Amino acid sequence: MTGSRSESRYAAFLREHGLLVGGALLVHRILSRISESCGLYWYRFYRQPLVAIDSPARSSGTLEFVWLDQYHDILGQLPRPEHNIRLRFEQQVKCLLACKQQELVACAWFGFGEFEEDEARCTYLLPSSAVWDFDVFVFPKYRIGRIFLKTWQQANDALGREGYRYTLSRISAYNRRSILSHEKLGAEKVGAALFLKLGSVQLMVANLAPWVSLSWSAASAPRIDFSAVVDDA
């Protein structure tokens, strides 16, 4: 029975995404079951314009917004390992929190300068006019309302006032819901990359420089420069 349900979910995924993405996901699942160090990761890169608003609101009703550039205990409410959250702050990142009193409702994370991919070995190099957005999260009981849009608008306003023109992000080709959400907000696809991981060996094929990379360690990992996709906008 469980196998039947799994097959049914995969058939629905194929209908929605097509054979190419569906086949890649099947390969990824098979590889990841063999080893946690194996997988087939397919990313699509998106660029989204930022527009500054002169007089931003610091709150929205009972919703309060706070920026963090270091770990705070309230982040312990996130369904993420604390160790992983602390590691994020070892890079140039900031987190925008949306809170109701002491309850964390949503958050959005942004990287500056350069950002290390956490699933594959790769560094994203960011121009001074762009930030990297990742892990925009809304707690399940608040997903029906407008919390996501309010949080994103608050981030948009603050970053725009600081002179940033775009956010850049990567979305798994297997996550159609996230792709559609970003596209509804005006995100434009600017590239893609495929990472095949087999233990310590990693092969990357992308339509952005360096195009192809074969690496065995972090020292030989590819570095994707997004300057061209921002400067050309």
TrEMBL record:
Entry-linked InterPro entries: Acyl_CoA_acyltransferase
The name of this protein is Uncharacterized protein
